[in-house]
Amino acid sequence: MAAPEGLGACPSGRVPDCVSTADASGDPRRRLTPLGVAAPIADVSAAALRVLGRLPGGRVLERGAGRIRARAVSRVLRLRTEVVVVVLPGAVHVRLAGPRGLLDPRTLRERARDLLAAIDAEIRGWDPPDGGWLRR
After folding, report:
1. pTM of the predicted model as reported, rounded to 2 decimal places
2. What is the pLDDT along the chain (136 residues), one digit of tens a residue?
3. For residue 8, how many C-alpha atoms fall within 13 Å in the half-sphere facing its CB?
């Protein structure tokens, strides 16, 4: 699967330090399922922006036309994770890239799933899920 425009591919390498809804490496530890949505792109983008604002040490670096790039910094070790969210009609795609070799790939997958679940809850107006990575 080709990456949606603006998402970018995970960098190649031995360490799965990146997870994405559009990963084409064949490594199942890197591949995620996009979030299906029925809301308008503007509403979904606004929900994603609100959720990204709750990331620990979160900072939006770029945004525009259905694409948001942010950075989160872990609370204890101050490790940086780059987060890219691309909103397309009917789907939300994400890519999370962490420090090479420092984060367990399961950690990145869990963070990405927490992020997608929080975006889904925000769109629906539900209380956000209790994700350890996202603060309320």
Report:
1. 0.83
2. 455 777 877 766 645 588 889 887 777 878 889 999 999 999 999 999 999 988 888 899 999 888 999 998 877 777 788 899 999 999 999 999 887 655 566 778 888 898 999 999 999 887 666 555 555 4
3. 15
